[in-house]
Amino acid sequence: MGAVALDHLPEPDRLEVAFAGRSNVGKSSLINALTNQKGLARASGEPGRTRELNFFEVDETDLRIVDLPGYGYAKAPKPVVEKWTRLTKAFLRGRVNLKRVYLLIDSRHGLKDVDLKIMDVFDDAAVSYQIVLTKTDKIKPPAVKRLIAETGEKIARRPAAFPRVVATSSAKQDGVDQLRAEIVALLPDMG
Length: 191
Prior knowledge:
This protein has a single domain, classed as Rossmann fold. The protein has helices spanning 27-35, 78-92, 113-125, 141-155, 176-184; strands at 2-4, 15-21, 53-57, 63-67, 98-106, 129-134, 166-167. It contains five helices and seven strands, in the order ββαββαβαβαβα. By secondary structure, it is an alpha/beta fold. The longest helix is centred in the middle third of the chain and has 15 residues, at 78-92.
């Protein structure tokens, strides 16, 4: 389906899951890994590339994936960052078919203040979200386990946070099947 402006949102005729995260966290790579389509979401070496809402309809399902604009990219002009923030907040408001937002966190950096602020937005909007650690191939396995536990503790008292943290590596396909199963569990019974 591609990028759309806020005033041209698709009808809420499909269940939606959204992916959010700081710029350069690996959203496009993870979406491509989940869908087994290398070029579905355009990955870029340039942080802050996603500047609109991008919608991807998953064939043979009632699922739509939404790629939200990246946040926390310091080099973007302030008015551009404010526009992305308004766009994301407006999308979240009243989107009844949005089942969950997957908040991607770079495992090399963990939760940052900017991530906590986005989590506040999700909590205030009562939008269910789940933390997904990305790029776990870049750190040692004991550090991944420790980061999962630490992140779980930090989100435990957040009202809209789903309690299970998923660790992924798009490059190595680690955790991709687990995350795919989390998404499938949100779909209505197909039987």
